[in-house]
Amino acid sequence: MTTRPTLFLTLGLPGSGKTTVARRVEVEEKALRLTKDEWVKALYGLANPPSASDVIEGRLIEIGMRALELPPAEQRRRLDRRQAEEPHTTWRMSDEELAEWAAIISIPTQGELDGSEPADCPPEGFASWEGWRGHRWPPSVP
Question: Phi and psi at residue 33, in whole multiples of 5°?
Fold first, then answer.
C-alpha cells in the first residue's frame, strides 16, 4: 500500500527481446503494458510510417504517465476487493485514512536505499535507528 508506482521501460534494438520481457513483466507485476510496435501494427497494418512512430510513442507516454498518477484509485480498488473476498484478513479503511497515511509516509530516496547518501537522523530521544527500531518494533510482547 505504501509503494510508489513503478514504470518499467524496455529499450533496445529491433529483435532484442523488448516485447518478450515486457509481456513477462506485465504478467509477473500485473502491469499495464504499452507497446508502440503493437499500436503501429494495429493502426497501420503492414505500413510502418516514420511519422506515426513518434506520435504513437508520445501518446503512450502520456497514457503511462497518467497511469502513474492514479495509484490511489488502484489502492482503493485493491482494498475493496480484499474486503469483499477476504474480509477476515483486513479491516475497513476510509479514503480519509488512506490520505492521512499517504501524507505521513516518507519514502526513502534511491541514495538512502543504496547508501550513497545519509538517511535522516533517528527520532528525538534515540541515538541510532537501531535503537528506535527496537523500541518501535520490540522483539516480543511484554
Answer: -105, 125
pTM for the whole structure? 0.47
Contact between residue 23 and residue 33 where contact means Cβ atoms under 8 Å apart? yes
Condensed to tens digits (0 to 9), the pLDDT of residues 90-135 reads: 888 898 888 887 777 676 677 877 778 877 888 899 998 888 878 8
> DSSP string of 82-106?
HHHH-GGG-----HHHHHHHHHH--
d(CA 60, CA 108): 29
At position 10, the amino acid (one-letter code) is: T
Cα–Cα distance for residue pair 76/1, rounded to 1 Å: 10
20 with 28: CB under 8 angstroms?
no
User: What is residue 142's DSSP assignment?
Assistant: -
